[in-house]
Design a protein that fits this description.
This protein has 13 helices and 4 strands. By secondary structure, it is α+β, with helices and mostly antiparallel strands.
């Protein structure tokens, strides 16, 4: 079967504990393989922190709020999936205190705290730490521009080591498999194939609009921006790096947005490093994982109408074993 050119669908997703979240516009669905083997699905809407605000349409500004929205929604979906695997819940003294202090919104307060703590920890590890590690070479390297590049390389190395380290955990390996299932479903649709287990299994587990690629773009953009920072004070340099995070996120969002909508050689070259890193953050899913991802897609997206509109879709004939082997090579 001849390969079809990709066509942007607008849907995106995220792997969660034993499941997949898919989002289409304001609507999202979380499908989870429950301990009893059934698939549990929650469908809801999340318009974002600036719903209806014109700022969300302004290039470079919209990326900042999309990043915030993805963190909030991601945490919400992770909590939903984790709920199926928690042992019998027992309300602790902290739970009662939080509920009393927040008027019954203890869970939301705790989620906000965990999200904020995660951001602070990420900034410390991936922004501040690389700066201080590169500073150990100041006695040997006097060129500020070269130091900025070294700092960026250290940041990327820390990220790769972090990914490799967490991938040793069984739960994270399964999360990466669901991540692969999410990508495969989107690639299946965007390349004009019917959404079924066979077609999803044959689709690529790498996608240009992946969050992994976004993070990699963040690192590259930060190297360029920090390259031009010329202040003497260590404190000022650290503060500027933190203050520039929204700017870096805004620029990176525009790049990955372009990557998701274009297919020219420049975009392919630009996306190549992030696509390569996705080999670490995605794994080949099994059929049950693919079924969960498909259920999530179908809860929020009419893929048949999409294929009919974009590809003039008709039911594909069952491929022969030889055709399947050729496509997998």
């Amino acid at each position: 079967m001849a390969k079809r050119k990709g066509c942007y669908s607008g849907i995106g997703g995220q792997a969660v504990l034993e499941g997949v979240m898919m989002k289409n516009g304001d609507k999202y669905a979380v499908a989870v393989r429950k301990p009893d083997g059934e698939i549990g699905i929650e469908v809801d809407s999340y318009p974002g922190v600036l719903a209806g605000n014109g700022l969300k349409k302004i290039p470079f500004i919209r990326g900042i709020f999309n990043f915030i929205d993805s963190m909030i929604l991601g945490t919400r979906c992770l909590n939903f999936s984790a709920g199926f695997y928690e042992e019998e819940e027992k309300e602790t003294g902290l739970d009662k205190a939080l509920d009393k202090a927040s008027g019954g919104n203890g869970e939301k307060v705790l989620t906000a705290f965990v999200t904020a703590f995660s951001v602070i920890l990420a900034v410390g590890i991936f922004i501040v730490l690389p700066y201080f590690l590169s500073g150990l070479l100041k006695g040997y390297i006097r060129n500020e521009s070269l130091m900025a590049i070294i700092e960026g390389v250290i940041r990327i190395v820390i990220f790769l080591v972090y990914i490799l380290a967490i991938s040793l955990m069984k739960d994270i390996r399964r999360l990466f498999m669901y991540h692969g299932a999410e990508h495969k479903c989107i690639n299946c649709i965007e390349h004009g194939r019917a959404l079924n287990v066979r077609n999803v299994r044959r689709s690529s587990r790498q996608h240009r609009r992946c969050g992994t690629s976004f993070i990699f773009f963040v690192f590259i953009v930060s190297i360029v921006l920090f390259f031009f920072i010329r202040v003497d004070s260590t404190v000022q340099k650290v503060i500027l790096r933190i203050l520039l995070i929204p700017v870096v996120a805004g620029i990176s969002y525009e790049i990955i947005r372009l990557a998701g909508r274009s297919n020219n050689i420049f975009v392919k070259i630009l996306s190549a490093p992030g696509m390569l890193v996705q080999k670490l953050t995605t794994r080949e899913p099994d059929e049950q994982m693919i079924e969960v991802a498909i259920a999530s897609v179908e809860a929020v997206f009419d893929w048949r109408a999409f294929l009919n509109e974009k590809f003039g879709y008709v039911e594909e004939p069952e491929p022969s074993r030889q055709e399947e082997d050729e496509e997998e090579q």
